[in-house]
Amino acid sequence: MTLPPTFTEDVAELPTHGFSYRSLTWWGVIGFMVIEGTAFVLTVAAYFFLMSHEESWAPRPWLPPNAIAGTLFTLVILASEFPNTVIKKAANAYDVATVRRLLPLMVAVGVVLLVIRGFEFNSLNVLWYDNAYGSIIWTLLLLHTTHIATDWVDTVVLWALMRTPHGEEPRRLVDTDENSLYWRFVWLAWLPIYLLIYWVPRFFR
Amino acid sequence: MTAAEKAKAPPIDVPRDGPDLTGDKLAAALEATWMRPPGLIGWLSSVDHKDIGRRYIITALTFLALAGALAVAMRMQLSKPDNDLIGAARYDEIFTMHGTTMMFLFAVPVMQGMQIYLTPLMVGTRNMAFPRLTAFSYYMYLAGGCLLWVSFILNMGPDVGWFAYPPLSGPQYGVGKGPDVWAQMITFTEVAGLAVAVTLVATILKQRAPGMTLARMPLFVWTTLVVSLMVIFALPSVALASGMLLSDRLVGTQFFNPAERGDALLWQHLFWFFGHPEVYIIFLPATGFLSEIIPTFCRRSIFGYPIIVMSVVATAILAFGLWVHHMFATGLPRIGYSFYTAASMSVSIPTGLQLFCWIATIWQGRPRFEVPFLYVIAFIFTFVIGGLSGVIIAAVPLDLQLHDTYFIVAHLHYVLIGGAVFPLLGAITYWYPKFTGRMLSDALGKIAFWLIFLGFQLAFFPMHLSGLLGMPRRVYTYPAGMGLELPNMLSSIGSLVVSAAVLLFVLNMLLSLKAGRIAPPNPWAAPSLEWATTSPPPPYNFPHIPVVESRTPLWDSPETLPVVHGLRVEHRELLLTSVLAAGPETREPSAEPSPWPFISAAAVTVMFISSMFSPWAVLIGAVPATIALIAWFWPKSALPHPEPVIS
């Protein structure tokens, strides 16, 4: 026989959702950010490992990447934090109308970023199979692109969901809050990668 | 009602567990809510952590049997000099399959399976944090294992060793699809392992029973938390490395090609940055088993709980600073030799501390020498030998002499079998009544134990000697007259004894399933929460969520179980508590069964396997995978429920 229960606290009055570290999915998102962050850090370690074998970086005669597309990408992704913050705050304030209004803007930003990213691949001045330098530069850019693409799909699905009656559910606003948090990770991760792809190969020529 | 009003709304009037709804009536209601649907689709849709944990364990034990059969084949080939039972090429495949299967398809998954089964029961919750992700992870693991073994059967298995060093595994020398199969199997198992790790961390941090502060967590849960964090930091390294290897082979990147300024040592760094922590990812859960088994069978609480916790954390941190000792023979700067030797030796300190805490517990307790406890003794004896041979090869001059000899084979089997498999067999014996509701046969268990323990020493101790005599590992035969005949013959006989013993252990598991003595909820008089519920537990684990007031709740409150109440019973609901103090915080819904994790895993499997043949498969294959993932997440009812439900 199992032990008979002694009743203590009644938990029925507790809320059915919580933001930030009170939410279960927040911990999931943080977990995956740490995994992806570790993958980025290790790729960066591989970058410097390969760089340590070279006398110049980018190795001559390869030219460093043209920085125009990458810089434009950086400016757009930095600017996207403004609507992202507004959406995050609105989600925390249960302001569904603002979330519904601004999510399509974030979807549009994602499209713009993916188009610019296409030009970035075209401005690297090296192909992935030319040498190890080309391989690691392409890997960094490709890894980050998968983040832009997956977050874009995520945002499209969230936008579609928020337009339904489910959008009025407090838990969906927690989802929105966490989608905004993930976007912060995506652009924060980009900043060191931007330096490694476009500027380190210039400084160490 | 707007979202803001909903957020402040009082709880709706639905049936909730409590003094008015308890006993059989509550059990029937919870059973209906938490049971998996019937039939094959229901089986594939199950999100019950006990189903998934059991599947992990059974699948991993099947892979253990397969890899064990390969080990016996190798031992038969090596039983006498100049033997021609197995040719060189086949032998290469066999040792590759043996190591790869044992490390990636047995050791890590079996530990994660135990963690998936036990953690929610030990922390007093109804299910894992992300049950569908857990289900998805199992199917990914199964697909990865099948990929490797079907390829082997079709004669296209890998033959490059379990760490697949380039250039041997690279595009120039790694002919055929074997290395691609190996690398993609890594992708499958790493996706699975990482998903489980995140789920376990969230479960442990947010779903502990009220009152179970971090300082009151069972030590197995502590090791699970620490090991899951290690998985999160270590597995991306091998996933990245195997991704680079695949792209070198498939699309011509030059990561490991020195002719185009790549470097084969990059592979070794990335692989061992994962590979060394991997050893502790396998070993630390085993220390968690010991820290549960020892107090129960010594009838006293564990000695030095904080020391054990700090030792586990210290081991985990140090484990990330040792990887280069696998690369001593590659030529390193002198400072590198000194640093990694010191770091490798220092890891024996926290492990030693744990060992002394266990010995102190046994010393001060009144040990009952039942089968699980016998495995503890076997562990201490065997692991100390393995640990000491580890300290020996941490010294560079000795390592350079012994590198790639059978001394290393002996060392790694002493630490992995002695350090992880013995505790695992003890743990299976210990928790078997919880898993199945039946006790294992004591007599069969003791015979199997002595055969395994003595057979193991017979199989692996002579390998120290053959290694010292200069026998390299991974050779398919050796010439007569070098003094290698006797140690090899002894090892081969020992391997047969171990195989017979493992078969006996499995036979005991099968026979006891039907004929074993019926197990009460707490057959060993153990102190932790998993023993508060029935054996086997119902689909909802506990009728009411327990409250914890000490580290040994069932010893300190032997007559009654304090509980909280007020969770919904007609929909799946969990109690979430705060991270440090485990105070009740929110009620959150738990996912209902769904076929979509299985369908998503099938779609991802098609994508991963076809991407071994064309890079475009990644793009095309991503479409069905994305659709399946969206269907998984999308709510299945047009209108939301009054209180949240994950349908």
Set down the secondary structure blueprint.
The complex is a heterodimer of chains A (205) and B (647).
Chain A: E1 5-10, H1 24-51, H2 68-79, H3 81-92, H4 96-121, H5 132-162, H6 170-203
Helix pairs in contact in A: 1-5, 1-6, 2-4, 2-6, 3-4, 3-6, 4-5, 5-6
Chain B: H1 3-8, H2 23-34, H3 39-45, H4 49-78, H5 88-123, H6 131-153, H7 178-206, H8 219-250, H9 264-298, H10 305-319, H11 334-346, H12 348-364, H13 371-394, H14 396-402, H15 406-436, H16 442-468, H17 485-515, H18 553-556, E1 561-565, E2 573-577, E3 584-589, H19 596-610, H20 616-633
Antiparallel strand pairs in B: 2-3
Helix pairs in contact in B: 4-5, 4-6, 4-17, 5-6, 5-7, 5-9, 6-7, 6-19, 7-8, 8-9, 8-10, 9-10, 9-12, 9-15, 10-12, 13-15, 13-16, 15-16, 16-17, 19-20
Describe this entry's structure for a reader.
The complex is a heterodimer of chains A (205) and B (647). Chain A starts with a strand and ends with a helix. Chain A has helices at 24-51, 68-79, 81-92, 96-121, 132-162, 170-203; one strand at residues 5-10. With 205 residues, chain A is mainly α. Chain A has a single domain, classed as Up-down Bundle (Four Helix Bundle (Hemerythrin (Met), subunit A)). Chain A is elongated and about 75 Å long. In chain A, helix 2 packs antiparallel against helix 4 (96-121), helix 3 packs antiparallel against helix 4 and helix 5 runs antiparallel to helix 6 (170-203). The mean pLDDT of chain A is 97. In chain B, helix 15 (406-436) runs antiparallel to helix 16. Chain B is globular and about 80 Å long. Chain B contains 20 helices and three strands. By secondary structure, chain B is mainly alpha-helical. The two termini of chain B are 21 Å apart. Chain B has a single domain, classed as Cytochrome C Oxidase, Chain A. The chains are: A mainly alpha (205), B mainly alpha (647). Strand 1 (5-10) of chain A pairs parallel with strand 1 of chain B, so a sheet runs across the interface.
